[in-house]
Amino acid sequence: MKEAPKKPKCLHITTIDLTAYCFLRTWFTYLREHGFDVTLSTTVQQFRKELEETGARVVDIPISRSANPVSDFISLIKLMSFIKKEKFDSVHTYTTKAGFVGRLAAKLSGVPIIVHTIFELPQNSARNPLLKFAYKKMEQLAALWADHFITISTFNQKQISDERILNTSKLDLIPEGLVTENYEAVNNSVPDKKKELGIPENAFVIGTVARLEAAKGYPYLLEAAKKILETKKTHDNRDIYFVAVGKGRMQPQLEEKAKELGISDRMIFTGFRDDMWEILRTFDIFALPSIWEGQGVVLLEAMCYSKPVVASDVGGITDVVDDGVTGILIPPADPEALAAALIKMMDNPDMMKKMGDAGYERVNKLFHDRDSNRKRLEVYKKLYKNRLGITID
User: Fold this and answer.
1) How far apart are CA 152 and CA 335, in angstroms?
2) Model confidence over 29-50: pLDDT tens digits?
3) How far apart are CA 381 and CA 375, in angstroms?
4) Phi, psi for 42 (deg, rounded to 5)
5) Tens of pLDDT along 241-273?
6) Prediction pTM value
7) What is 180-366's CATH number, 3.30.390.30, 1.25.40.880, 3.30.310.70, 3.40.50.2000?
8) Reading across the β-sheet that carries 37-43, which strands appear in turn?
């Protein structure tokens, strides 16, 4: 009896399981459908069940998100031991920290195929010039440990080339995409969800979904909210609420700032919510005032619900938002510009409707998940054929 061909074994490494939950579930399913044995190594926090439902094996090998030489060394040794034991054909890393530790572990373990996805470059989130320089040099060093790279925006692609982070002949641009059909299936009661959040049924809602961290520009949203509430109260006494969905280290600081600005009764911090899509449907406008953004996938999610968007003109956001057509782009760290753009939208319902409809069409045309997964699989096919002589169907 002829022995069944061995399934190609691929290991994926992320710092935390939230990254895999948000970005990799359909990719894992797609790989399984094409004959791969899929394993995820991550810091397991809360999404093991959802990730295992893709058919992937989930292994808890923690990686600290912050620099910690002792814990990083322990993570490196654990990863090397696991990789050598399992004899993976390929290792694919994601995010800066997991990318550095994971690529090094894979290289030292002799993995024949190493791939890294660059969502965003770490130097963009640093303000100290010395730290920026150090991050850049670390990325250039880690680039020596991988065979191929994927990035998600034209801005990233240009910066990688301009800063000579890696040999761009080894780089593919593959934007993140959405399974748009999943969003169409969400049809909850908006009034009921507003009531659950403590928002009056007829109130106008400006919302965002993002980690409560400095890169997301939350202080500027709070300052813009104060300006909007003062302006609209003077002109039409409109009932306006602001909603922030997400968790992060800045939550106590942001809640205190909302109190100082006198807007805490209109600013709702929900924390992490597994009903995020249902809450998103309650928004009239989606705002993302990021200081830096690799692509802004959450903007695609908002556009899937035909929400007009206001976002910072930074990073990969420019690939997602067609300024003046699907939303309005503003300078980063500018609460006055943010408030003005949001007020302009609020005062023009027809413009909001046109932008929302145009955004929905743009996502379905340019950012569907099936196209992203197909392109990623093509990268795998070439690497497996060239390096291992394995043909992937």
Assistant:
1) 28
2) 999 999 999 999 999 999 999 9
3) 10
4) -160, 175
5) 999 999 999 999 999 999 999 999 999 999 999
6) 0.89
7) 3.40.50.2000
8) 57-60, 37-43, 9-16, 90-94, 113-118, 148-151, 171-173
